[in-house]
Amino acid sequence: MKRIWLFLFGLILLLTSCNEEKKELKAGDWLAELQVSPSEALPFNFSLVKEEDELYVMQMYNAEEVVTVDEIKVWNDSILIQMPIFEGYVSGTFTENEINGNFIKESLDRIVPFTAKFGGKDRFEVASDATTNISGVWEVNFEEGTENEYPAKGIFVQTDNNVKGTFRTKTGDYRYLEGVISGDMLKLSTFDGAHAFLFTAKVTDSSLQGKFYSGNHSIETFAGKRNEGFELPDANSLTFLKEGYDNLDFSFPDETGKMVSLADSRFDKKVVLVQIMGTWCPNCLDETKFYVDFIKNNPDFDIEFIALAFEYATTEEKAWNGIRRLKDRVGVEYPILLAQYGTSDKKKANEKLPMLNHVLSYPTTIYIDKEGEVKKIHTGFNGPATGDKHEAFKKEFNNTIKKLSEEEAK
Q1: I need a labelling partner for 376 at 20 to 30 A (CA). Which of 18, 49, 75, 151 fits?
Q2: Which CATH superfamily is domain 136-226 in?
Q3: pLDDT in tens, 84-112
C-alpha cells in the first residue's frame, strides 16, 4: 500500500511540473547595472532575443562596440550568463521583466551585484542640458600626486548631452566608453564581459576632475585639461632588451605539455612575432583578433606568431581551459604557450622574461627578424575604440611586417 501511495505522489509531482508554466525572459531592450560602490552604479544596455533552438542570445552595447553573449542557461527561475571568451559570469534569478544576481570572477574572488530591467533604454539619466562640450583631446593624469600616478589621453566626441570616446594610456585603452554630460557632470561607462569601467567627473570648458571605478574593487582619482597637442610616449620605446642580452629566450609548454622555444626548427630563418598576453584581457583579445585576421588575409607571408599566456586562473587546468576557449571562439591557429598561472602580476611575468627591462603591459608584442634578432617591441595595443590611432597602428604594423619579410636571412 505504501508503494502505491509513493507512486501516486510521484505521478502528481510529475504532472504538476509538466503543467507548470515555463518562465521566460522578455525579448527586446534591457538596461543593466553593476553596483560598483554604495553610491554609484555602472549602467550598460543590452538586447535579448530567443533563437529558434529556444536558446537566448544577448548583445551588449558600448558606443560602436557590440558584444555577443550566446551561452545563457535558464532553469526554473535561475539564470547563468557566461561571458564570451572571458571567465566572468552572471549568476542570479529572473522574472520575465527583471534579473537579479551577481557578476562573478572566481579566480580573482570578485563579486559585483548585478540587476537588469526590461524596457530600459537610457544609459544615464539627463537632468539638465550640458554646460560645456568636451569634444577633443585631453591631457589626463590618474592618481595624480601618488606613486601610482600615470598619464592618459582622453579623446571624446560630444553631441548635445551624449558623449563617446576613450582614455588611452601607455599600455592600451579603456575600451568603448559611452555616456552623458548632465549639467556639469560627466558619466561614462563600459562593460565588455571582462572589465567594468565607470568614470564620473565634474567638467568645465578646460578641466576634468573625477573618479574612475574598476568594478567594485578599485577607485582612482583623475584630473585633466584640454591639450590638443598632447601625445603619450612612443609605444615602441617603453620596453626593450636589457644590456647584456642579445635576444629573446624562453621555454614554455604548449597544450600537449611539449616545451616550445624560439630554438625550435619551425622558427628558424623566419620572422617571428611573440605576443605577451592573457585570455582575461580585452585589449589582448582585440589584438589577437587583429592577428588572426592578418594571418587569414596574408597567407603568402612566411611569418610565425606565438603567444605567451600569463593567466590569473588559480589552477593549470583552468588556465588551459581559458586558452582553449580563446582559440576555439576566435579561431587562433598559432601556438599559445602557458607562461604563468595563478597571477597576472607583471613583476612575476618579468621574472619569466628577465631579458626585458620590464613587462609593462598586456599585450606586448616582440618583433624578431629572420636572424633571431629583436627588431622592435610594441607595448600595449590601440584597439578599435581609439579610432585614428588604431588605423595608424595597422599601417605601421603592415609596413613593419613587409620590411622584415623582405629582408634576406644570412
Answers
A1: 151
A2: Quinohemoprotein amine dehydrogenase alpha subunit, domain 2 (2.40.128.120)
A3: 999 999 999 999 999 999 999 999 999 99
Q: Where are the domains of the chain?
A: 23-118, 136-226, 252-406
Give this prediction's pTM. Answer: 0.90
Do 136-226 and 23-118 fall under one CATH topology? Answer: yes
Class of domain 252-406: alpha beta
Q: Please write the tens of the pLDDT for every residue from 16-38.
A: 444 456 789 999 999 999 999 99
Note whether 304 and 272 are within 8 A (CB). yes
User: What confidence tier does 183 reach under pLDDT thresholds 50, 70, 90?
Assistant: very high
Q: How far apart are CA 67 and CA 61, in angstroms?
A: 7
Contact 401, 303 (CB under 8 A): yes
d(CA 129, CA 139): 25
Residues 6+ apart with CB under 8 A from 392: 382
- Give the CATH H-level superfamily of domain 23-118: Quinohemoprotein amine dehydrogenase alpha subunit, domain 2 (2.40.128.120)
Locate 84 and state its grid cell: 564570451
Angle at 300 between CA 298 and CA 303, to 5 degrees: 85
Span 55-71, mean pLDDT? 96
270 has a pLDDT exceeding 90: yes
